[in-house]
Amino acid sequence: MQMYMDGSGFTTKASELLIVSLPAMPHTRIDIRTLSPEALESWFTEQGQQRFRAKQVYEWLWKKSAHAFAEMTNLSKELRATLEESFVIQGIQVASIQKSTDRTIKTAFKLHDGPVVEGVLIPTSSRMTACISSQIGCSLTCKFCATGKLKLLRNLDAAEIYDQVVAIRRQSEENYNIPLSNIVYMGMGEPLLNYKNVLGSIEKITSPEGLGMSPQRITVSTAGISKMIRKLGDDEVKFNLALSLHAANDEKRSKIMPINDTNTLDALAESLQYFYDKTGTRPTLEYIIFRDFNDSLDDARDLAAFVKRVPSKVNIIEYNPIDDGEFQRASDEQLNRFTAFLEQKGVIVNVRRSRGRDIDAACGQLANKNISAENVLKKADA
Ligand code: SF4
Fold this sequence. Notes:
By secondary structure, the protein is an alpha/beta fold. The chain has 11 helices and 14 strands.
């Protein structure tokens, strides 16, 4: 799911080019970060190396986020050369950075095979949030979303997702001197359609051998894949879940989110209840409010009724229009009426003001300008 901000003025500085470029490498070598600690240990044992070397390398790869074997200075030159001959590290590179007047920072990350994805740092008075991508493009074609207009090229692997967090975390410290506090999987792509890699990235982000962040600071947002919401429950995950609801009647929701045809509100309510029963975590319902589409009191009534079916809280999100102009932002008066109605009905509701409008970093805006994944691929092929 998307949740971003927009702006002008590229401000790329040398210190912000966080990721070390990799030399061109043959494709026969595998990415060392796909290996488990056990597999890495076996490799070292086969090489006649001591087992603690595997631990050292693992620490370089994850905790210290090294993107080149040359950085691993506590290994001998010979060992570094052997690693180089056997593996690659397919790190992401910062392609460009845009800063909004409201301090939001949007970063375009170039992947090892050419495409670009975006991630956003969203500073507020109480938190520093990284909004990250899980796929290049998206297959779900939500009508209000820029990413939904791009074809799905591929899933990101766990390390590519992890790298976005590392880079944005560093931006938070370097630009604002405040540590990153939260992570939301609301950038490009549908995280639950890249389940294994998304959970793999969260495992690394939360592990003491990675970034050691609390899972309670992480939210995975889905357009609503009931089967996978149940799977999250079965896996008893510790992070938060958000459902991009945006309309609480099937006819209306299917108009803007085709996934609703096969994952109806009934199915979603049941799977969210299942998730809650298994994890004890109350899901958040995200509701982007669009002018004259889902901002009436009848819509608020539908939403209040849906909330009653599932233990949940509601985030009302201001919309930032994308270029096609199909949807518009609801007026402040209507937003206030809508919210007051929900509160009257006892719904726990927060309003999320739009951030980063001037740099196309707001909810649903990612990748709608000059860095679409398809354009980048074309350039890479040229
Ligand atoms: S198309 Fe839908 S699921 Fe895909 S990124 Fe956009 S809002 Fe999220």
